[in-house]
């Protein structure tokens, strides 16, 4: 066990993946000498050479498109997109090519690409640097979409993503890059020790309300659980981990225990993952629900400028407000949910 | 043959009118384009460069002091920006990247407005229509296509206005920029592609994006191009005037590669010590755009002690207002995040706004 930041845990995951399989290649802008703008790939080019850790010319569509060709040839490309807002130039390659090639070729062509994307807000960045585009990808058949909230998961899930024969869009919660935690780098050495990449996890047990969160907001949800317990409310927090496919079984089991569901994400509300989870859980647990599921999300606006982001991002208070709502307690928005 | 002032200049040539020592050199093709650039006119170019550098240094300091979230310095690129911007007519429309703060200053953008985006108080520092300059594009290369569209629109409207788009050497790899060149050629758009080859795309040297001089690319798209010493304000002024003349005359697009050097970090969050060769930087320090004009103007007797004092006073004055302007930028109101998402009412968003207002009131916060 070593104590690592989430960013360093990702780096150590990449190092292990490069060492374990010589078909793994890293591709991205500034990932070489600079070590990536967040230093996730720090030192890897020195260690593995320019052929394994490739600084790419500045074009995202080009990077993903070239990775498709490498995958055709049997390589396992790991592409770094520098920031969430710069994945859109590659969107066509990802949703029209990467996602569909296995299907189109009746399974003969594998696309074991991993596309790493630092995502989300909360670091006071300029526009295009704080986006939460996960729903676009979760909406696309053929892609797996995951995100991590702890250094251990960052390390393990990244290695699992690289080992996976399907394309994985791997969202890294950039405002948690500097979060520290214990990392066991041997966890994948024997089968069964690590949780599968596609499984959600109960990270706080509770009996009154289930909060489902993922990526950067898991920590906020845990804070909310602690704050609520001071008021005698017992909250269970589920870290989703996988956004596509969704581990609805784990959420369902939790909601059957608590009877109440709050879903939290930074992405805008309409058409977001919260809607998908609310609909699916309502379908599965209708008779177990004491209240309609509530969502705490970003608003249906572009991500605002840095000095207004606190008004956009779900925070502790907004989560507790939603907890009140599902508990049927008087609060600011009582009545709104019925309309 | 593709057009140029008098036949096509050899492509690997670097147009230069003022060498690094500040010696004025003659160029047969471009000389007429700077015939008026003497005395006070030269002094005003000098003043602009000094002021722009001062604003840039000041903004970098403001970032270090925590007043700005980020700043993209243009240190070393003053001549490329001032020379090209001063060639523009008021109605010509600029589509910049994030680094063209010197161009913005020359377009008449209020200095403190340059800081709004980087301080995080709003997403656009100015009204594009007020200064004929679009809001900076952060997504690399996107603005080049916008310039082509604007230029085609000008043609349709029967006016001789040109569009000018700025981008870096790294941007020339993006699909958008290549598509923009195809479209510009297809539609004979009155657009000037102004590439500031500052040798770096963050940590990636220009050689990763281009195996040949970047200016060579445009002729393949059917666009005449010129390579200019980007640290020579006179040469940049001349070639930009030439390119604009072509556009205004209806001769279609032109591509300019201004060869310059990014003397500072990519942005204030970058660490160039990880990848920049100090010797290369040192070499470029010897080609400083301001120092060479200064040497020339001194030798000409134009930059007198009095003139120098005047320029310094002007820089002080602009810098002081800039700094004060920065800290006085208003904090965005909580509900302002809902403003201007749509031009017309949108029921879903209006409802979210009311909900948020109710919520803010419930926790004792003033919403507006
Ligand atoms: C589509 C896109 N990809 C990546 C980035 C991140 N990024 C910002 S600036 C930059 C380098 C740009 O280099 P260049 O075009 O040469 O312009 P310069 O910054 O040197 O002026 C990169 C990769 C971005 N802004 N947009």
Automatic annotation (TrEMBL), chain A:
The keyword Oxidoreductase applies. CDD domains: TPP_PYR_E1-PDHc-beta_like. Keywords: Oxidoreductase, Thiamine pyrophosphate. One of its GO terms (molecular function) is magnesium ion binding. Residues 4-179 form the Transketolase-like pyrimidine-binding domain. Pfam families: Transket_pyr, Transketolase_C. It comes from the Bacteria. Its cofactor is thiamine diphosphate. PANTHER family: PYRUVATE DEHYDROGENASE E1 COMPONENT BETA SUBUNIT (PTHR43257), PYRUVATE DEHYDROGENASE E1 COMPONENT SUBUNIT BETA (PTHR43257:SF2). This is Alpha-ketoacid dehydrogenase subunit beta. It comes from Microcella daejeonensis.
Automatic annotation (TrEMBL), chain B:
The keyword Signal does not apply. One of its GO terms (biological process) is branched-chain amino acid catabolic process. The keyword Oxidoreductase applies. InterPro entries: Alpha-ketoacid_DH_E1_comp, DH_E1, PdhA/BkdA, THDP-binding. One of its GO terms (molecular function) is oxidoreductase activity, acting on the aldehyde or oxo group of donors, disulfide as acceptor. Gene3D superfamilies: 3.40.50.970. Its cofactor is thiamine diphosphate. Residues 48-319 form the Dehydrogenase E1 component domain. Keywords: Oxidoreductase, Pyruvate, Thiamine pyrophosphate. It comes from the Bacteria. NCBIfam families: PDH_E1_alph_x. PANTHER family: 2-OXOISOVALERATE DEHYDROGENASE SUBUNIT ALPHA, MITOCHONDRIAL (PTHR43380:SF1). This is Pyruvate dehydrogenase (Acetyl-transferring) E1 component subunit alpha. It comes from Microcella daejeonensis. The lineage of its organism: Bacteria, Bacillati, Actinomycetota, Actinomycetes, Micrococcales.
């Amino acid at each position: 066990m070593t104590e690592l930041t989430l960013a360093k845990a990702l780096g150590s995951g990449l190092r292990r993946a490069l060492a374990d399989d010589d078909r793994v290649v890293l591709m991205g802008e500034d990932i070489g000498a600079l070590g990536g703008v967040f230093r996730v790939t720090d030192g890897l080019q020195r260690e593995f050479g320019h052929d394994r850790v490739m600084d790419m010319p500045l074009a995202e569509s080009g990077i993903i498109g070239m990775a498709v060709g490498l995958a055709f040839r049997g390589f396992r490309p790991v592409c770094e997109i520098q920031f969430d807002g710069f994945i859109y130039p590659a969107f066509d390659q990802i949703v029209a090519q990467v996602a569909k090639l296995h299907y189109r070729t009746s399974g003969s062509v594998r696309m074991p690409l991993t596309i790493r994307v630092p995502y989300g807000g909360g670091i006071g960045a300029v526009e295009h640097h704080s986006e939460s585009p996960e729903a676009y990808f979760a909406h696309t058949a053929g892609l797996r979409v995951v995100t991590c909230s702890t250094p251990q998961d960052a390390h393990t899930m990244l290695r699992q993503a690289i080992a996976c024969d399907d394309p994985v869009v791997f969202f890294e919660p950039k405002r948690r890059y500097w979060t520290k935690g214990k990392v066991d780098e041997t966890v994948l050495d024997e089968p069964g020790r690590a949780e599968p990449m596609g499984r959600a996890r109960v990270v706080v047990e509770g009996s009154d309300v289930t909060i489902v969160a993922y990526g950067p907001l898991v920590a906020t949800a845990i804070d909310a659980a602690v704050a609520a317990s001071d008021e005698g409310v017992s909250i269970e927090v589920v870290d989703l981990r996988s956004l596509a496919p969704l581990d609805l079984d784990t959420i369902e089991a939790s909601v059957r225990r608590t009877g109440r569901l709050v879903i939290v994400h930074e992405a805008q509300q309409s058409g977001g993952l919260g809607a998908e989870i609310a609909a699916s859980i309502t379908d599965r647990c209708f008779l177990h629900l004491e209240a309609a599921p509530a969502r705490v999300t970003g608003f249906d606006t572009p991500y605002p400028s840095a000095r207004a982001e606190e008004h956009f991002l779900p925070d502790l208070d907004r989560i507790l407000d939603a907890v009140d709502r599902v508990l049927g307690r008087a609060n600011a928005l009582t009545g709104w949910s019925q309309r | 043959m593709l057009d140029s002032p008098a036949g096509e200049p050899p492509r690997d040539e670097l147009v230069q009118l003022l060498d690094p020592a500040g010696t004025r050199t003659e160029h047969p093709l471009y000389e007429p384009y700077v015939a008026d650039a003497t005395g006070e006119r030269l002094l005003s170019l000098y003043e602009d460069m000094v002021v722009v550098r001062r604003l840039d240094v000041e903004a970098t300091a403001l970032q270090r002091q925590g007043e700005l979230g980020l700043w993209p310095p243009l240190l070393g690129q003053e001549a490329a920006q001032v020379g090209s911007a001063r060639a523009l007519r008021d109605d010509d429309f600029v589509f910049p990247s994030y680094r063209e703060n010197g161009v913005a200053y020359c377009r008449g953008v209020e200095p403190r407005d340059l800081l709004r985006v980087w301080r995080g108080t709003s997403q656009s520092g100015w009204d594009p229509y007020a200064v004929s300059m679009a809001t900076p594009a952060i997504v690399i290369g996107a603005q080049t296509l916008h310039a082509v569209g604007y230029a085609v629109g000008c043609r349709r409207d029967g006016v001789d206005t040109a569009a000018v788009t700025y981008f870096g050497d790294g941007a020339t790899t993006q699909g958008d920029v290549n598509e923009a060149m195809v479209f510009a050629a297809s539609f004979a758009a009155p657009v000037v592609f102004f590439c500031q080859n500052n040798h770096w795309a963050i940590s990636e040297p220009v050689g990763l994006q281009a195996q040949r001089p970047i200016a060579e690319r445009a002729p393949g798209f059917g666009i005449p191009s010129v390579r200019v010493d980007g640290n020579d304000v006179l040469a940049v002024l001349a070639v930009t005037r030439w390119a604009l003349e072509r556009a205004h005359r209806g001769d279609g697009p032109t591509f300019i590669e201004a060869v310059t050097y990014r003397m500072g970090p990519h942005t204030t969050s970058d660490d160039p010590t990880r990848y920049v060769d100090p010797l290369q930087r040192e070499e470029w320090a010897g080609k400083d755009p301001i120092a060479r004009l200064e040497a020339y103007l001194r030798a000409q007797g134009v930059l007198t002690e009095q003139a120098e004092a005047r320029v310094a006073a002007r820089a002080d004055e602009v810098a002081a207002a800039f700094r004060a302007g920065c800290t006085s930028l208003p904090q965005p109101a909580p509900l302002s995040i809902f403003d201007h998402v749509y031009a017309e009412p949108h029921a879903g968003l209006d409802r979210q706004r009311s909900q948020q207002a109710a919520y803010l009131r419930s926790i004792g916060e003033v919403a507006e």
